[in-house]
């Protein structure tokens, strides 16, 4: 019985206590940086490894040469919480007939023939307890996409991993503070 | 061939752009011609900037005790089910409960039921005891609980004189198909976390955002039915609103001669008022 | 030894640390990595939505018959919230708990997901998946063969819908096919009130109550505002009702701690009729009644003579017996109280006297309902603002007139399977006779039974008798979307319907506003499973047979049949939706979810009775009595004796009080059973919605139990006092209930909540509580009403 106590319960209890202290330190020490948990969750929920997108979408070509805007394809960036990925219809508007030589262009028409959406892979995912609205930032906050995202005007491909410049709570809060936006917990937490 | 492509491009995307540009220009001129329409700070936004004090008034003379508020709350806020499992007896999670009144058989009332959300006390006992700052008062008068900051010590549950806080003794569970109806605007709470009513803050937030983007201030009528309980209430016994706005119905009703708060002698200063012709709640 | 020990202990130490750490992490994290978001399963149609995209779809609730308009929030192809529609006049934005819990019906994890065919015998066999094509062929062949053999009357249809086009469609199908056995209107249409309204007013629909403008509500029976869809209708009025009508609630027991009233009066069980007549007696005696109405529109108020010169008694003669002294003794109240209520109700007009549907299910239901309705007439409430309104039907197009072929005509006139229309029963609905009729007949008298929204193995009196009776029917088809008892145990073929959030339908609200409202139900999400709308199935069935039958179903699907009807609203030129073309009208109708017509100007009361007046003395009841006497060559007195009524033939056609005749000996079964419906009951169909079952009656009372209340004095020294599970027994069965003592219950009564005791119907419904209907006698005796309010029971002792 005593052996059991020493071998199992004591270390277990000690480590629990330790965990608790560490947790408190991380979570409670400085409310403004949000503790380590936000970072941990971020790491867990955003894919860290590069993903293979179904098509090689050249952002630069579309933005520079065709003078398109982000919201032409990420349609809800100004209208809702999620910027959203383009639907097949958005591509077909121009690519129902060939525009160039790239083989992936034909693939768009293949998807159309099959009646299938292009299975874009979402690379940016927020943790479940965070509310983020593109509309609030873009329309009300008058921010540009590249204030948070990688500057896709220079990218010759679709995003293959998270393109947010370090999505951390402290970064969000610093920016909110600088722009006199609310920093109440409920502004972003749900 | 090439010219055909050029043509089709012109007719589609570029034409749309040209059209948008034209419409934009016209609108721009219109804005200049009528400067009042685009005043630098629309009164709507100014109104939003004034600190609000969210409050609720529940008219017990109208309440029929049907339970819609409680069910609406559970669906809206992803409150876990209790289910028919004896081990879960007494661990029910309910943000909006229907509690019986004193049950005095000599006095007859419309409904002897008390719908009880979190009182969002002005002087909240739960906030004072939280060791990690997971619960606090925000500037809009809400008693906020941040799920991911809570360490589950349950001091706040002990401190709350209204028993309006619940603890997640088990991870929330739903049959797979039920997960379809979970509200994406509200986080699910993991095991080991205390949860409570938020006055459906996610709905307030989206209303605020819409108002800011469109410049249209939400009317008292829009605000009145914001929380799920107030919106669903069949006899409209629950009125929600800004207590700081003297014009809001909630503020007016909270000053009615029928108005009272629960356990007011404790000095908790609840933001939830009740209306009744009979002063049914004994102090204490 | 020691070293080894130490090594192990070190290892275990490390393990202990690791485990604890892992445990802490897991408990914080959940299975999916993110503890704050639960991934949703894939659903049909979700692919067409972009992330976060949402839509609000207008529709109508189907969780009770109130007919509330709803707005469903659909996010990424999944319905996430049902809200009341503020623009719908029925509910004005509110919605009851059942309506809110509708998502759990849509996403019920135990729903039927494809057609099923029974393998092995009933009650023990299994249902196995089968394709729609082969299921339809099976049913189509069977019905076609039956008809060819000239046995079309061996098809019967049970339709659980009381109103609406699906009921019309099924009735049409039965007729065209050639079967008179179409049973419908389970809940209120066969109740005593519906019959009283028919016999006195000639109306075939329940009346609408003008809650917003009434001054006084006298509610007779248990918790009218809690137990019926009147709750939704009544609630609507709170915002407009500035003056606040006084609500007086008269009942034998008050099980719920809430009483939606300004005053509660406890009277002896089963004496509501006497109470109403006592009030009427005082009102007439004092000439407080609406003399103008009675003289202008009343028939049979005073003694009258028929065309043969025979003198008959009138209502006023009957009232002479109900003196305040007599009534107060019968009801167990004080006479001055009766006087006070009579004075109040006469002074605070317009007034409404209301009778609870549940109280109608007793042998004296009809006389009680006649008495209540007569009181309303005396108070001048008929057709008056603030009183009792005639529900004007919506001006929809009717479908093309039915064309019968020879087979159908022959079988509708001379059906043999269950016998012809008899006058044995003076109630129109014969559903509750069905098990008796089946048991009297030989095997296979009925060949095929179609069940639409009906689950008799749970929700009809004495399911055990139904079980026996259903064994006599060779082929049973259920259209239930849910795995209810009848489908699970007795159906040979299950052709699951969509749920109400996946199909096209009209909502057909129960009478409430007086002016017409037409609601639309439409798919808010794509059908989750391989199910089909029963309306489409019936139309397809009829069309593939061709000939005369197909001609009666000239629609591609149920939606076009529905649209055809709805266009009548457009052509009427009235109402809330005004559009130039029919197409635009339909588009607008589907977008808003409902059509309504502004309140009509006050019309003078019209009565479709033989006398053309409001009949205190019902000539239709007299006709019934005479006809029965003529066909059997009996005197009216003998006919009534045969039915078991002591009243004189004249009194039988007039409002009166009759003592209840409870089943079971008083000494053996000392308690009178009083089944009680909570607002979540809805014919037993709320049991699979855990959101409703999680709701406590009161904090501290157990959930997921069948609660029963008795007066503390009625414990009868059985030592079972206190909240605990006990066994309840009647002459017909036994169930387990959870006993609670309450002062608000009449001594001698036991109030038992309905809704528990399912043996199927999904994981949440099954296996808790008891079904009150197990205790109730299966036969409806002469009255044609199930005597579910008058069964006697006893407590057998503590249950495990």
Domain count of chain B: the total is 1
Helix content of chain B: 25-40%
Strand order of the largest sheet of chain B: 8-1-10-9
β content of chain B, as a range?
A: 5-15%
Query: Which two chains form the greatest contact, residue counts included?
Result: B-C, 62 and 81 residues
User: What's the quaternary structure here?
Assistant: heterotrimer
What shape does the CA trace of chain C take? globular
Specify the CATH class of chain B.
Alpha Beta
Q: What would you say this structure looks like, in words?
A:
The complex is a heterotrimer of chains A (190), B (284) and C (800). Chain A is mainly alpha-helical. Chain A has helices spanning 2-28, 35-45, 59-65, 70-73, 88-95, 103-114, 134-140, 169-178, 185-188. The radius of gyration of chain A is 23 Å and the shape is elongated. By secondary structure, chain B is an alpha+beta fold. Chain B has a single domain (43-275), classed as Alpha-Beta Plaits, CATH 3.30.70.20. Chain B has nine helices and ten strands. In chain B, strands 8-1-10-9 form a four-stranded mixed β-sheet. The longest helix of chain B has 32 residues, at 2-33. Chain B is globular and about 45 Å long. Chain C has 800 residues and is α/β, with parallel strands linked by helices. Chain C is built from 27 helices and 29 strands. In chain C, the strands form eight sheets. Chain C has a seven-stranded mixed β-sheet. In chain C, strands 24-28-25-27-26-29 form a six-stranded mixed β-barrel. A four-stranded parallel β-sheet of chain C has the order 11-10-9-15. In chain C, α4 (132-148) packs across α20, α12 (324-331) packs across α13 and α24 (619-632) crosses α25. Chain C is globular, with a radius of gyration of 28 Å. The model of chain C is unreliable at 1-32 and 422-426 (pLDDT under 50).
Short description, anyone?
By secondary structure, chain B is α+β, with helices and mostly antiparallel strands. Helix content of chain B is 31%, strand content 13%. Chain C has 800 residues and is of the alpha/beta class.
Descriptive terms for the model:
heterotrimer, B: 284 residues, alpha+beta, Alpha-Beta Plaits, four-stranded mixed β-sheet, disordered N terminus, C: 800 residues, alpha/beta, seven-stranded mixed β-sheet, six-stranded mixed β-barrel, 29 strands, 16% strand
Write the layout of secondary structure elements.
The complex is a heterotrimer of chains A (190), B (284) and C (800).
Chain A: H1 2-28, H2 35-45, H3 59-65, H4 70-73, H5 88-95, H6 103-114, H7 134-140, H8 169-178, H9 185-188
Helix pairs in contact in A: 5-6
Chain B: H1 2-33, H2 43-49, E1 54-59, H3 68-76, E2 97-100, E3 113-116, H4 125-129, E4 135-137, E5 143-145, H5 155-159, E6 165-167, E7 194-196, H6 201-214, H7 220-224, H8 228-232, E8 238-242, H9 249-254, E9 259-260, E10 272-275
Parallel strand pairs in B: 1-10
Antiparallel strand pairs in B: 1-8, 2-3, 4-5, 6-7, 9-10
Chain C: H1 2-29, E1 54-60, E2 69-75, E3 78-84, H2 97-100, H3 102-106, E4 116-119, E5 126-129, H4 132-148, E6 155-159, H5 165-177, E7 182-184, H6 192-201, E8 208-209, E9 216-220, H7 224-227, H8 230-236, E10 246-251, E11 263-266, H9 272-285, H10 291-297, E12 298-299, E13 304-305, E14 311-312, H11 315-319, H12 324-331, H13 335-347, E15 351-355, H14 365-378, E16 388-389, H15 406-413, H16 434-440, E17 448-452, H17 456-459, H18 463-470, E18 475-478, H19 485-490, E19 493-494, E20 505-506, E21 517-521, H20 534-545, H21 547-551, H22 558-572, H23 582-592, E22 594-596, E23 614-615, H24 619-632, H25 636-643, H26 649-652, E24 671-676, H27 690-693, E25 707-710, E26 724-730, E27 733-741, E28 749-753, E29 792-798
Parallel strand pairs in C: 6-7, 6-17, 9-10, 9-15, 10-11, 12-23, 17-18, 18-19, 24-28, 25-27
Antiparallel strand pairs in C: 1-2, 2-3, 4-5, 4-19, 8-16, 13-14, 20-21, 21-22, 24-29, 25-28, 26-27, 26-29
């Amino acid at each position: 019985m005593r052996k059991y106590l020493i071998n199992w319960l004591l270390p277990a209890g000690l480590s629990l206590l330790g965990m608790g202290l560490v947790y408190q330190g991380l979570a409670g020490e400085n409310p403004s940086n949000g503790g380590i948990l936000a970072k941990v969750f971020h790491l867990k929920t955003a894919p860290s490894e590069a993903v293979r997108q179904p098509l090689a979408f050249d952002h630069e070509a579309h933005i520079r040469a065709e003078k398109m805007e982000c919201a032409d394809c990420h349609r809800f960036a100004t209208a809702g919480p999620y910027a959203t990925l383009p639907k097949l219809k958005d591509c077909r508007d121009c690519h129902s007939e060939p525009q160039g030589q790239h083989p992936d262009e034909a693939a768009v028409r293949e998807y159309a023939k099959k009646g299938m959406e292009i299975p874009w892979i979402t690379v940016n995912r927020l943790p479940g307890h965070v509310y983020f609205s593109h509309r609030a930032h873009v329309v009300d906050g008058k921010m540009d996409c590249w204030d948070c995202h990688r500057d896709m005007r220079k990218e010759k491909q679709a995003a293959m991993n998270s393109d947010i410049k370090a999505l951390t709570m402290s970064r969000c809060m610093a920016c909110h503070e600088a722009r006199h936006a609310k920093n109440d917990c409920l502004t972003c937490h749900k | 061939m090439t010219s055909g492509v050029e043509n089709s491009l012109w007719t589609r995307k570029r034409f749309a752009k040209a059209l948008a540009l034209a419409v934009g220009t016209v609108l721009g001129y219109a804005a200049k011609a009528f400067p009042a329409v685009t005043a630098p700070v629309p009164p709507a936004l100014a109104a939003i900037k004034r600190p609000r004090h969210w409050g609720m008034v529940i008219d017990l003379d109208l309440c029929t005790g049907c339970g819609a508020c409680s069910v609406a709350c559970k669906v809206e806020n992803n409150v876990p089910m209790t289910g028919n499992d004896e081990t879960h007896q007494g661990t029910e999670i309910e943000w909006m409960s229907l509690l019986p009144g004193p049950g005095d058989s000599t006095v007859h009332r419309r409904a002897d039921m008390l719908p009880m959300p979190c009182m969002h006390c002005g002087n909240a006992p739960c906030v004072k005891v939280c060791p990690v700052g997971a619960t606090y008062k925000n500037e809009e008068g809400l008693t906020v609980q941040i799920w991911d900051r809570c360490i589950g010590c349950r001091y706040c549950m002990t401190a709350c004189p209204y028993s309006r806080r619940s603890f997640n003794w088990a991870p929330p569970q739903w049959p797979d198909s039920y997960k379809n109806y979970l509200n994406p605007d509200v986080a699910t709470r993991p095991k080991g976390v205390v949860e409570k009513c938020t006055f459906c803050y996610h709905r307030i937030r989206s209303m605020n955002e819409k108002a800011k983007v469109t410049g249209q201030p939400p009317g008292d009528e829009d605000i009145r039915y914001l929380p799920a309980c107030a919106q669903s209430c069949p006899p409209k016994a629950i009125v929600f609103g800004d207590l700081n706005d003297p014009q809001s119905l909630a503020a007016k009703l909270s000053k009615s001669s029928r108005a009272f708060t629960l356990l007011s002698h404790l000095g908790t200063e609840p933001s939830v008022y009740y209306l009744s012709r009979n002063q049914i709640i004994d102090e204490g | 030894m020691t070293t080894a020990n130490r090594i192990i202990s070190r290892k275990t130490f490390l393990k202990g640390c690791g485990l604890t750490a892992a445990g802490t992490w897991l408990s914080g994290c959940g299975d999916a990595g993110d503890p704050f978001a639960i991934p949703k399963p894939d659903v049909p149609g979700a692919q067409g939505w972009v992330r976060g995209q949402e839509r609000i779809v207008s529709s109508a609730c189907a969780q009770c018959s109130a007919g509330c308009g709803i707005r469903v929030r659909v996010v990424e192809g999944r319905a996430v919230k049902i809200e009341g529609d503020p623009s719908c006049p029925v509910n004005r934005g509110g919605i009851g708990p059942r309506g809110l819990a509708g998502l759990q019906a849509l996403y019920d994890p135990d729903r039927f997901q494809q057609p099923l065919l029974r393998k092995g015998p009933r009650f023990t066999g299994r249902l196995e998946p089968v394709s729609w094509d082969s299921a339809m062929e099976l049913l189509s062949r069977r019905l076609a063969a039956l008809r060819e053999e000239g046995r079309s009357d061996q098809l019967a249809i049970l339709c659980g819908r009381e109103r609406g086009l699906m009921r019309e469609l099924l009735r049409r199908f039965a007729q065209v096919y050639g079967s008179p056995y179409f049973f419908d209107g389970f809940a209120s249409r066969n109740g005593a009130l519906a019959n009283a309204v028919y016999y006195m007013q000639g109306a075939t629909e329940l009346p609408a109550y003008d809650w917003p403008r009434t001054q006084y509500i006298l509610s007779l029976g248990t918790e009218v505002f809690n137990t019926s869809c009147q709750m939704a209708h009544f609630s609507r009025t709170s915002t407009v009702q500035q003056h606040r009508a006084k609500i007086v609630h008269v009942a034998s027991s008050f099980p719920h701690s809430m009483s939606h009233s300004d005053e509660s009066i406890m009277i002896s069980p089963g004496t509501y009729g006497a109470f109403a007549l006592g009030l009427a007696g005082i009102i007439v005696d004092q000439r407080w009644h609406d003399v103008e109405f009675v003289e202008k529109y009343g028939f049979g108020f005073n003694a009258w003579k028929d065309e043969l010169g025979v003198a008959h008694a009138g209502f006023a003669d009957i009232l002479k017996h109900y003196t305040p002294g007599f009534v107060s003794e019968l009801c167990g109240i004080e006479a001055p109280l009766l006087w006070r209520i009579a004075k109040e109700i006469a002074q605070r007009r317009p007034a409404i006297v209301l009778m609870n549907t549940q109280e109608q299910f007793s042998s004296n239901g009809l006389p009680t309902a006649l008495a209540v309705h007569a009181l309303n007439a005396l108070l001048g409430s008929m057709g008056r603002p603030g009183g009792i309104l005639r529900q004007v039907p919506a001006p929809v197009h009717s479908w093309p007139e039915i064309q019968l072929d020879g087979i159908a005509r022959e079988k509708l006139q001379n059906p043999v399977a269950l016998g012809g229309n008899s006058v044995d029963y003076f109630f129109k609905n014969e559903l509750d006779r069905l098990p008796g009729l089946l048991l009297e007949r030989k095997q296979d008298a009925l060949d095929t039974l179609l069940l639409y929204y009906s689950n008799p193995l749970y929700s009809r009196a004495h399911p055990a008798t139904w079980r026996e009776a259903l064994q006599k029917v060779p082929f049973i088809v259920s259209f239930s979307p849910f795995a209810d008892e009848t489908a699970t145990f007795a159906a040979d073929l299950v052709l699951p319907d969509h749920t109400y959030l996946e199909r096209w339908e009209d909502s057909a609200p129960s009478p409430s506003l007086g002016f017409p409202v037409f609601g639309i139900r439409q798919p808010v999400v794509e059908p989750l499973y391989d199910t089909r709308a029963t309306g489409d199935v019936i139309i397809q069935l009829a069309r593939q047979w061709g000939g005369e039958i197909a001609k009666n179903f000239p629609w591609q699907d149920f939606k076009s049949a529905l649209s055809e009807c709805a266009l009548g609203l457009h052509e009427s030129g009235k109402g809330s939706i005004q559009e130039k073309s029919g197409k635009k009208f339909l588009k607008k109708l589907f977008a808003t979810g409902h059509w309504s017509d502004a309140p009509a100007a006050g019309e003078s009361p019209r009565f479709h009775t033989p006398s053309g007046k409001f009949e205190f003395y019902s000539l239709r009841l007299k006709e019934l009595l005479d006809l029965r006497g003529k066909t059997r060559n009996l005197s009216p007195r003998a006919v009534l004796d045969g039915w078991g009524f002591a009243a004189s033939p004249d009194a039988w056609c007039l409002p009166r009080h009759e003592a209840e005749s409870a089943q079971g000996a008083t000494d053996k079964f000392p308690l009178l059973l009083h089944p009680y419906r909570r607002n979540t009951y809805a014919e037993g169909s709320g049991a699979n919605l855990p959101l409703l079952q999680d709701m406590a009656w009161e904090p501290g009372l157990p959930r997921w139990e069948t609660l029963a209340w008795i007066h503390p004095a009625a414990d009868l020294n059985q030592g079972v006092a206190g909240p605990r599970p006990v066994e309840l027994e009647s002459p017909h069965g036994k169930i387990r209930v959870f006993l609670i003592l309450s002062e608000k219950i009449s001594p001698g009564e036991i109030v038992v909540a309905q809704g528990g005791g399912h043996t199927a119907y999904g994981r949440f419904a099954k296996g808790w509580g008891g079904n009150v209907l197990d205790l109730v006698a299966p036969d409806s005796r002469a009255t044609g009403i199930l005597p579910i309010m008058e069964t006697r029971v006893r407590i057998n002792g503590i249950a495990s």
